Predict the structure.
Amino acid sequence: MEPKRIREGYLVKKGSVFNTWKPMWVVLLEDGIEFYKKKSDNSPKGMIPLKGSTLTSPCQDFGKRMFVLKITTTKQQDHFFQAAFLEERDAWVRDIKKAIKCIEGGQKFARKSTRRSIRLPETIDLGALYLSMKDPEKGIKELNLEKDKKVFNHCLTGSGVIDWLVSNKLVRNRQEGLMISASLLSEGYLQPAGDLSKNAADGIAENPFLDNPDAFYYFPDSGFFCEENSSDDDVILREEFRGVIIKQGCLLKQGHRRKNWKVRKFILREDPAYLHYYDPAGGEDPLGAVHLRGCVVTSVESSHDGKKSDEENLFEIITADEVHYYLQAATSKERTEWIKAIQVASRTGK
């Protein structure tokens, strides 16, 4: 009987011989992790046994490379995987941890629906707290803050984070708020922005998190960026990045010239409506952008030359300038979700 598939999807894996990071199709089984060069491959490129393995997350061995997890086998071999965004990493971590625990206890992996609740600081669930902080209605409001002739977009202040924790009665006092915020920072749920907060996080201050209105922080998937504002002649830079992120993840994209398919990390923003795509193996700057205002997006069952495609779950974006983009999702459900999200964004202003 074949092992049960628990989770599968695109992750970026560090090579075991060369220090290169490449996107792989990763499959979590009950007893191990298989990774494939392509989803359509019949045999895996490698397999990591989970029995006796340990999981480290967050893994901060690679500086600016975020959302990394590390699996160390019984033979002391380290395997590094990078997710596209924070919630995706945490979902993989939860399932891998549970799979390892089930192996140790001789149990079968089974999902249970559990209600998360935040009660006492000592039993707080940082993942659930992070989602509460990002809630559009009741969460912390992101701000555009100016300091030292720079504008920090989609930002939070240190004192604002503590205020929110106290006002929502998630901590009993500001000192407890500092402890929880420092944990959020160390686990990657918050990132420092600006010299003051960065210096504190690097250990220059007594506490890595500062209860200070001049200490700036941001959610890692908020669309944060900093822009210079040094003279009256400055134009508004990077307008397309101002929109709030409404969806992100990895998809296959067909090249316009060579027509080859490559895995790309996509970030969908609305108002203004843009779809940016990146090299998932690294790089802060996008490889390209699709302006979605007035676009048409539909599922397709054949390639653009009219031939029946061997690829599944294809969809097409046609921009207002009549540029065609062909993308492939991992599942039909994922394709439907992307199409609906892009349709909503395309109707927003700008």
